Amino acid sequence: MTRTFVVGLDGASWRLLDPWIAAGDLPNLAALRAEHTWAETESCLPPVTFPNWKCYSAGKDPGGLGVFWFEHIDLEAERIDVAKGGDFKTAELWDYLSDDGQTPGVVNMPTMYPPRDIGGPVVAGGPDAVQGEYRSIDSGYAAPEGLEDELQELFDYRVHPDPLLSSNEERGAEVDAILDAMESRFEVALHLLEENELDFVHVTLFYLNVLQHFFWDDEPTKRAWELVDEHLGELAAMDDLNLVLMSDHGSGPTTTEFYINEWLAEHGYQAHERTVEDFFRPLGLTRENLLGVAKKAGVVDLLAKTVPESVQQLVPQSAGAKRARKLEAIDLANTRAVASGQGPIYLLPGTPESVRDQLIEDLRAVEDSEGKVFDGVYRGEEVYSGAYVDEGPEVVVDMRDGVHVNDGIGGGQIQTAPDRWAAENTRNGIFLASGPDFASVGEIEQISITDMAPTILAAHGVDIPTDMVGEVLPIHAEDPDVGERDPIDIGARGEGTSEEVADRLQQLGYME
């Protein structure tokens, strides 16, 4: 059976790549697209890292995963927790490959920390494999035992680039560190493929999208894509290897920042209370400003170790109160709705259905100078399916391309110019399949991100789990002889540390 190598390109979009392909800057990617099968993809809502990497690997939308964004909002319990890898309640395509007697490997896949047994090597990656504020992790990120020592000895492996990029003004060492990290991801994945005789390997380039967020199509991002293209040429030249390229979502230039909780307050769906942010912000004291000063002084690690987390959290963020601090800024007794960033909106228990109907109608009417702010506004059950729909948001917005839906509370403005990111996530990513098990069809119609797992399983002759909502794409060289099978129960998962995950996401701009 042919081996498969999947390259996960975080935030990749044909919108970004087409001009470089046309100019001859990415010759290997151009050749792959010209000679094989490719498509634009549609991510699940919201189009973000958590949950879309799992939508790909599990073949399910968030209703089948139990994770709907980077945070869990439980208004009945009056708490907000940061989502972790162990919160995803699902088996993935590598579990089914392993159950079939094949050996998979996963490198740098978000949502895989702490690593678990999949019957092959696992190297957890960003953004969730962390050990403390702004610091990387030195152990506990790989399985089986001994793999970390091997990676350290052969590749001087780092889970996260250091220094970590946190501003679009940082174009030197921070960018070089990301390129070095990307290089090592390819080296490790190829090493594991050959030395462990893997049947399947997946590698994610998570920090590729960090570059896109901060620089969009500027020189640092282009350097990264030229590095990717070089490695794609090497992979495409390997015999008896299926090569699959995919992304968790797409990206595009950010044009505006829309503060969804400020909008909810302005329109009577949310009531606010004064917090420490209201006193610090007029002084220009924010976590972003302090981080910049600490990085220039070289004392980030020292401060992270010596300043208590409770004190760190008192310093406001430029975008307002986030995560659990949102609840401190909200008068829940007089509130109907609370939003996460980039899409999900939760209603207080007992809120009448008529209020949800009115909220949806009001959101659909929101406009600015470019037209409707949202491409769609939906009830949660309209876009999600599976066992965990009831744990999800009651309302979900689909951001117009270029709109960053920000959940910060306390800034006082509903819409502003872009804050930190030059590029925002979009729903339209990429997919490309080449190799002996795939036909050369050319461009096909848009596919769902949930179609990838069943399509890869079919290429490996593995029956498709009945709880996958994706379809097997008609792109195989021969009709796959596969049927259906019962899902695997992977059991309890490790928890990780939510505040440390949140700190890493905040520095990168994912949770401001």
From TrEMBL:
Protein name, UniProt field: Alkaline phosphatase family protein
| Sequence ranges of Basic and acidic residues compositional bias | 478-488
Kindly give the InterPro entries that the UniProt entry links to this protein.
Alkaline_phosphatase_core_sf, Phosphodiest/P_Trfase
Q: Where is this region: Disordered?
A: 478-500
